[in-house]
């Protein structure tokens, strides 16, 4: 059995004492203790948050105050981070250059290769080379015009995805349920999307 020892009747403060440990309180008069029923003890265990008071002859449980403003901002920040991650994923998952009818890699390494070819063109003038596309097909006459088309498409898609991410984050700022916000629309179609479409029929 558990007991309540009232510390201050005015503010309802108390201590909970296990009956098996009463011997540790030799100076405590048992007449001043309040025996708890099992039901009362179980209610205390289930609802106590460290702010419980004993008022009159019962527990008074204080609800934990949740800072909803802080909680919403935390959820928004978490979703903003996911939007940024999704934006970055889209910007490295391949672009389609309609004029060439081909998909091209656009991750960091691929972009550096494109810039490397541009540097060669700037140094020695226009020439043709073989270029491997995202699907491992080869363009045998890849030159300055085709390079320009690819880089232009990469930059257009990147700009579109940055703007779309900003749109989603602006919409997110006005929601009361940011954790469930769907930010899946408005992104550029990538090579990864194309492969998924082919797999799903």
From TrEMBL:
This is DUF4376 domain-containing protein. Keywords: Coiled coil. It holds the Pfam family DUF4376. It comes from the Bacteria. Residues 65-92 form a coiled coil. Residues 74-184 form the DUF4376 domain. InterPro entries: DUF4376 (IPR025484). The lineage of its organism: Bacteria, Pseudomonadati, Pseudomonadota, Gammaproteobacteria, Pasteurellales.
């Amino acid at each position: 059995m558990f007991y309540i020892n009232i510390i201050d009747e005015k503010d309802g403060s108390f201590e909970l004492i296990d009956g098996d440990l009463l011997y540790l309180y030799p100076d405590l008069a048992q007449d001043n203790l309040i025996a708890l029923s099992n039901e009362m003890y179980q209610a205390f265990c289930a609802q106590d948050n460290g702010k419980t008071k004993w008022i009159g002859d019962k527990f008074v449980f204080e609800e934990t105050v949740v800072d909803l403003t802080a909680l919403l901002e935390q959820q928004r920040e978490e979703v903003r981070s996911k939007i940024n991650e999704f934006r970055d994923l889209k910007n490295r998952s391949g672009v389609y250059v309609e004029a060439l009818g081909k998909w091209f890699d656009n991750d960091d390494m691929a972009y550096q290769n494109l810039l490397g070819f541009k540097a060669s063109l700037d140094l020695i003038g226009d020439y043709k080379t073989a270029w491997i596309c995202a699907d491992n097909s080869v363009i045998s006459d890849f030159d300055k015009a085709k390079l320009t088309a690819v880089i232009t498409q990469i930059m257009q898609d990147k700009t579109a995805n940055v703007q779309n991410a900003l749109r989603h984050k602006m919409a997110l700022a006005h929601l009361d349920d940011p954790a469930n916000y769907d930010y899946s629309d408005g992104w550029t179609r990538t090579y990864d999307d194309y492969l998924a479409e082919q797999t799903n029929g």
